[in-house]
Automatic annotation (TrEMBL):
Protein name (Swiss-Prot/TrEMBL): Uncharacterized protein
Feature: compositional bias, Basic and acidic residues: 13-23
Start and end residues of each stretch annotated as Disordered: 1-23
Domain of life assignment: Bacteria
Taxonomic path: Bacteria, Bacillati, Actinomycetota, Actinomycetes, Kitasatosporales
Length: 66
């Protein structure tokens, strides 16, 4: 997995913008990122939602496995 560190002090010499890549998805569930499930930080994460914005109502398999 790739981990990124944001450093806003670096300026792009060509004038482009530095943007952070999307976080890695959890390989065991469709509702959280890998970091949330690895650290079991479900309470601090935002409520998962489907791509159209409706709330994810199925229990997270990672949460129920612990």
């Amino acid at each position: 997995m790739t981990r990124w560190i944001e450093d806003s002090s670096m300026e792009a010499p060509e004038g482009h913008r530095w943007e952070r890549p999307a976080p890695d998805d959890c390989p065991a569930c469709p509702c959280h990122t890998a970091r949330v499930c690895e650290t079991r930080a479900w309470a601090r994460a935002e409520r998962p939602a489907y791509a159209d914005g409706t709330p994810y109502t199925v229990p997270c398999p990672c949460m129920t496995a612990t």
